[in-house]
């Protein structure tokens, strides 16, 4: 969407009062099955930043029924303001690390049709928890890289207007000479990127990971894809070759089907659905 007119043209063709952009096909499949609501039409944006961009474009075009749902990742959830209806929300940031974390429902994994090996809920949990216990330094590394990347890109210049850059010298000047961001980045080898600082970050995050594991919060805060992959391998006999994404989607659908049947849908995802409906005044 490059213009307000383009945004209206796209959304006017959608027969649904609520439009939601999500990051990937697994999220689309899972939420469609979980919510089973004709009022909501879900589209795949392809990434978190693209979800943000699509929602921002809709807001600029004054299309009020378009929202985004994206993973929390290593950022912050905004769940605390979901039900504050006087405050505008374009993108809902999940309470858990990513959508796969909501599939770490041991009873659902045991009871769903994808449990080809008949594994019990306690055995699935134990298998995944044993794997999670080995991930402390891996996860500390990922979180440290996230911190470094965030600091390196914070305050980076916005793309220049077309009229500002006509020559090579214009381009160089825009990046090097008129950017506080560039000067800040140049100092980082002696601050942020110093080995002592990286060691400190790694140690800090390893301790946080260890605490989350001991507190039982690892199911929510550890990256869910890797944990779900462990669960999937444990309960299935022979995953289809060359169909990894499809395999995860089938598992998501099976878990959602069990959760709906048993009335055990993740509460915050159902709250999210209700928030979307209330914000557009649908019944």
Principal-axes geometry comes out as: globular
Domain module tally: 2
Class based on secondary structure composition and strand pairing: alpha/beta
Radius of gyration from the CA trace?
A: 22 Å
* C-alpha termini separation: 29 Å
* H/E element sequence: HEHEHEEHHHHHHHHHH
Strand content: 5-15%
Q: Assign a percent range to the helix content.
A: 55-70%
- Report the major sheet: 4 strands, parallel
- The order of strands across the largest sheet is 2-1-3-4
Helices and strands, with pairings:
Elements: H1 4-12, E1 18-22, H2 25-35, E2 40-44, H3 48-60, E3 66-70, E4 91-93, H4 106-111, H5 121-132, H6 136-153, H7 168-177, H8 180-186, H9 195-215, H10 218-221, H11 224-235, H12 244-262, H13 267-280
Parallel strand pairs: 1-2, 1-3, 3-4
Quick recap of the structure?
Helix content is 55%, strand content 6%.
Textual characterization of the structure:
By secondary structure, the chain is α/β, with parallel strands linked by helices. The protein has 13 helices and four strands. The protein has helices at 4-12, 25-35, 48-60, 106-111, 121-132, 136-153, 168-177, 180-186, 195-215, 218-221, 224-235, 244-262, 267-280; strands spanning 18-22, 40-44, 66-70, 91-93. The radius of gyration is 22 Å and the shape is globular.
């Amino acid at each position: 969407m490059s213009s307000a007119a383009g945004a209206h043209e796209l959304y006017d063709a959608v027969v649904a009062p609520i439009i939601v952009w999500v990051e990937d096909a697994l999220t689309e499949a899972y939420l469609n099955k979980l919510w089973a609501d004709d009022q909501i039409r879900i589209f795949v944006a392809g990434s978190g930043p693209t979800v943000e961009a699509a929602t921002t474009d809709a807001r600029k075009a004054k299309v009020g029924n378009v929202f985004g749902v994206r993973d929390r990742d290593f950022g912050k959830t905004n769940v605390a303001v979901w039900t504050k209806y006087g405050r505008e929300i374009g993108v809902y940031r999940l309470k858990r690390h990513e959508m796969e974390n909501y599939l770490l429902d041991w009873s659902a994994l045991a009871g769903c049709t994808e449990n080809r090996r008949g594994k019990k809920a306690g055995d699935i949990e134990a298998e995944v928890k044993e794997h999670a216990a080995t991930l402390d330094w891996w996860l500390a590394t990922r979180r440290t890289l996230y911190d470094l990347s965030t600091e390196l890109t914070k305050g980076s210049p916005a793309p220049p207007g077309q009229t500002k850059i006509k020559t090579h010298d214009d381009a160089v000047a825009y990046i090097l000479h008129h950017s506080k961001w560039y000067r800040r980045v140049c100092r980082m080898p002696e601050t942020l990127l110093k080995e002592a600082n990286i060691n400190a970050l790694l140690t800090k995050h390893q301790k946080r990971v260890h605490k989350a594991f001991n507190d039982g919060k690892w199911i929510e805060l550890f990256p869910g894809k890797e944990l779900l992959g462990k669960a999937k391998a444990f309960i299935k006999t022979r995953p289809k070759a060359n169909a990894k994404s499809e395999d995860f989607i089938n598992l998501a659908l099976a878990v959602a089907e069990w959760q709906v049947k048993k009335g055990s849908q993740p509460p915050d995802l159902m709250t999210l659905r209700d928030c979307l409906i209330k914000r557009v005044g649908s019944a």
